[in-house]
What we know:
alpha+beta, four-stranded mixed beta sheet, 588 residues
Amino acid sequence: MLKKFKDTFGKASLIFREYPMVLLLAIFGALSFILTSDRHPQSNDFIFLKLGLVSCLGISLLYSLKMLSQRIGKSILLEASGTAFLVLFYFLLPAQEKDFTEQYAFLLIPTFILSHLLVSFIAFLGVKREMYFWQFNKNLFINIFLTAIFTGVLVGGVELAILAIDQLFDFNFDGEYYRKTFILLAIFGSCFIFLLFNEKGLQDLEKDGSYPLILKFFTQYILIPLLFIYVVILYFYGGKILINWELPRGWVSYLVLAYSVVGILGLLLVHPLKDASTKSWVQMFSKIFYYTLIPLIALLFTAIFTRILAYGYTEPRYFVLLLAAWLSSVVLYFAFSRRTTIKFVPVSLFAFGLFSLIFPYLNTFSVAIRSQKKELKEVLVQNNLLENGNINFDKKVSDTVVDELSDKFKYLAERKQGDFLKHFLKKEDEKIIVKNLEKADFWKISNEIKSRFTKIENTKSSFGIRLELISKAKFQNIENYDYYISVDLLRQEELVFNNDKFEIIAPNTNKNLLVFAINKEQWNITPFLEKTIAAHKEESGIIPVSEITAEKDLGAYHVKIVFNNLIRENVQDSVFYYNTPILLIKKK
């Protein structure tokens, strides 16, 4: 037993000696996310969110550099370079949470993927040892799978132990203990377990080993047969397109990409088996897979260019096009090259991904912004909305065009193109951009653009046309009133005051009817709501109005109801709803 403990602690100490920076970043990332999750009022936890993201990025980056250093040495130099990159990346992220828009997702997600790709090949650049490369990645794949299982068991076991102590000994732990424990074990715990499986790193990961039976069974009897079924479905869909002579649907891009990526992964998994005496379909699949991709890639390019030509580039469309280009290069390489290496797959994908993020003028951010600027100008010109270079909001325009313009304004505002957008607005309208850019309220910019159009033509189906009336009167003068009641209170119970009973007697029907009563004397507010909505029958979007109020004498009281908004979702059935209104009441 003592020997087992010594072996265990010996392995743990070896991990700390071999991977100090990786473990430091893991604990730093876990603690940062724990502090972020506290969400204390007035705390600047966005700093901790950035630190957590950068630290987790650094785990895979520093691990890949460790693999490289085990091959070529220069450990200190490589770790210093990796740390310098992480510091630079931290400052690429915005300083304030309000500026942390979806644009940064298209920076973070590809960078995380690239850092993991780097692990797969960086120690084998220039090294002509195909099977060592395959063994290394096979062992990494297995270790990741085992790490997920072990981490799940560890997290579940520790959480259950905390729950048992809490319930049996009446500690009354709050949810913070469970959440913080989960974050710590999910990040630091999984990292530590993964490193334990890797033992000494490159030396152990690239050593030869037998092909795992479970992996062999999975690829031969599950993965490859499923891919055969999948490609048949896609070919039938391609035939349907040719017969009907119609453009492919947008989501087919993701289906083709899924088939391609999973198929390439399958080929990498069966690489040692392709020349062995194994199941015939494995050999057949290895030979024909890249040829089956050729018509599917043509379908993929057709689908993505259909969207790009109609709506321009955005970051997701750019990445789909980039993946299509990468797949084309993989097909050309493996289908037509005499000497091939499976290292081409991760290395080429890494090169394409790096190009998309850092290449001047042609990176995803530059291309998307230029494209959406061009699209915005074209929409304005095609619909004759420009007058002396500014948008004329009084011209008649369809609701679909208004939606498209507001979406493009929001998109470009999120990407700090406020100066460009201001050129299309008159001086009095520039405050739309200036005020809301300062607050980073990009939805407000979109809604303000919509609300400024005065003649919107409804071209959509009656169903799904949304109108929201918003009261400009944010403050109500209550000087002449005695009581204030939230309508929500009346929906839940009767209120008795001075022997008078206040109630809502017809709440929450299918049309959200509202009938208010004092001592059974009723005031049906529904006709007022219907009349207010009917006054804007031909409009949609967000419409500011001076106020949404109604008044009536009920018995010994004068009552005023105040709505902050009124929403219609469907023209044909006149369905409407609203946020909780208030009642102002005074004795006559």
